[in-house]
Amino acid sequence: MADSMTFILNGKETVYSGSATARLLDVLRNEYNLTGVKCGCKEGECGACSVILDGRLVNSCMTAMGRVAGSGVVTIEGYRETERFKALDKAYASVSAVQCGFCIPGMVLASECILSKNAHPTEEEIREGISGNLCRCTGYNAIVKAIGIAAKEGDGLW
């Protein structure tokens, strides 16, 4: 039996009619065509499916739709419309922190969560903040550097 629930998706009230046990990952990709969220491990270990749920970074592959009722979900598609994204995008580009791009939506959302909690994180805090997001291409150093640059150059955004 289908359930009906309301939640905020990228700033817009959204009604989902479907199973409360469906994975948020699948619903975002299949129902709303938000393909920035990637299906990597399906076990909550790689972070490619990361979204921001009520201000916290979560793995959408481990989140049931019933959990999002009444909540706010931000995907990379919604986040890329913000000034904060522009600062992160510029910082990532300045140090070539993107290679294949598979992990980057999740990394950028993790970056947002790090900076929204602490506008001037240490390298250790940055590394801890992205630890749930795997990257097989860049080796993390460029990503860590990019987040540090965004923290400095985007001062006042976070």
Task: Tell me what the structure shows.
- The chain has helices at residues 24-30, 65-68, 76-79, 83-94, 104-117, 123-129, 141-153; strands at residues 3-9, 12-18, 50-53, 56-59, 72-74.
- The radius of gyration is 15 Å and the shape is globular.
- By secondary structure, it is α+β, with helices and mostly antiparallel strands.
- A 5-stranded mixed β-sheet has the order 2-1-5-3-4.
- Strand 3 (50-53) and strand 4 form a beta hairpin.
- The chain is 39% helix and 16% strand.
Largest sheet: 5 strands, mixed
Beta-strand percentage range: 15-25%
Oligomer: single chain
How many discrete domains? 2
Give the structural class: alpha+beta
User: Which stretches are poorly predicted, pLDDT < 50 over at least 5 residues?
Assistant: none
- Helical content (DSSP H or I, runs of 4+): 25-40%
CATH architecture of the largest domain: Roll
Order of helices and strands: EEHEEHEHHHHH
What is the CA-based Rg, rounded? 15 Å
Write the CATH fold name of the largest domain. Ubiquitin-like (UB roll)
Strand order of the largest sheet: 2-1-5-3-4
> What does the overall shape look like?
globular
Number of strands: 5
CATH class of the largest domain: Alpha Beta
